[in-house]
Design goal:
There is one protein chain. By secondary structure, the protein is an alpha/beta fold. It has two domains: 195 residues, inorganic pyrophosphatase (n-terminal core), CATH 3.90.1640; 127 residues, Diaminopimelate Epimerase, Chain A, domain 1. Helix content is 40%, strand content 17%. The strands form two sheets. Strands 3-2-1-4-5-6 form a six-stranded parallel beta sheet. A hairpin with a 2-residue loop joins strand 7 and strand 8. Helix 5 packs across helix 7. The longest helix has 25 residues. The radius of gyration is 19 Å and the shape is globular.
Amino acid sequence: MSNKVMDKIGEVFAAARNVLVLTHISPDGDAFGSMTAVGSVMRALGKNVTLVVEDGMNDEFAYLPLADKVKKRLPYDGDYDLLIAVDCGDEERMGEPYLEVQDRPIIVNIDHHITNTGFGRFNLVPSSTSSACEVLYTLFDHLNYEISQDVAISLLTGIVTDTLCFRTSSVKPETLSIASALIKAGADLPSIVSRALVVKPFASLKIWREGLNKMKLEAGVAWTTLSFKDLDKPSFDGGSNAGLASMFSNVKEAACGAVLREKEDGRVVVSLRSRPPFSVAEVAVELGGGGHAQASGCALDLPLEEAEFEVVRRLKASVAAQKAALLKK
């Protein structure tokens, strides 16, 4: 990571007064972890900070510091001189909250996705890093910010979830060193693994059941669809389809998995996962989204059936091409 860029970001942080922190739609542990970590650091620096994500806080990550401060919409009286985008590959992925920002402030873009478009005035996007939370630790350490217990809990959550508990190819010796430092700072690794990766609300299992009942497997692609009508029931409140795409990608006969979830406004949010050596990042980019090799996503303004056809068609073609390339090696 560039020391010059980190120094400049530190200057921008120091000068800011009112800070808005945004992340991507359908947020995961790295999104929530990086958002709340930045929120805690900004508060420690004496800033007014607002945390917003279109979907609101997921119940599975309600243990995170500042989880109760995460909003779904921008306050009407918001006046920001700095926007920090975390774990987000492009502006569109920030959804409605980004569109609601009236006077665009300085944007600092902190991410790790290889597909990041570099949309900020200042961009810290080392694509070889395991997670946005690992990037943030390096930044905070470089700027000599205190890593409090709250910050450590948030950052370790992001690293643990994005690496599937240190099981992805993005895990390097530095990743483990950072995790060790966060544990020393007070983050409880067994508790975080249990809460973020193992324990699920019963409502989430009900959502998974809906998806599993409609799952399909063709040409190395396992997928399902979840319509808004299917999930618009009180018994699904607080639930999430997080983890379902990863389950599909672990099917022996599959190279990748996909979950297409229809939102209330008709958009379809697509979660893509793959098992090495296969990648889903290219398909996500083709569809206007982004991510990294084994975990990507996008949002489509298409009816659910059309979105399903388009996503599955592209995934099948991608898997076939990647299999052919592997055979030539």
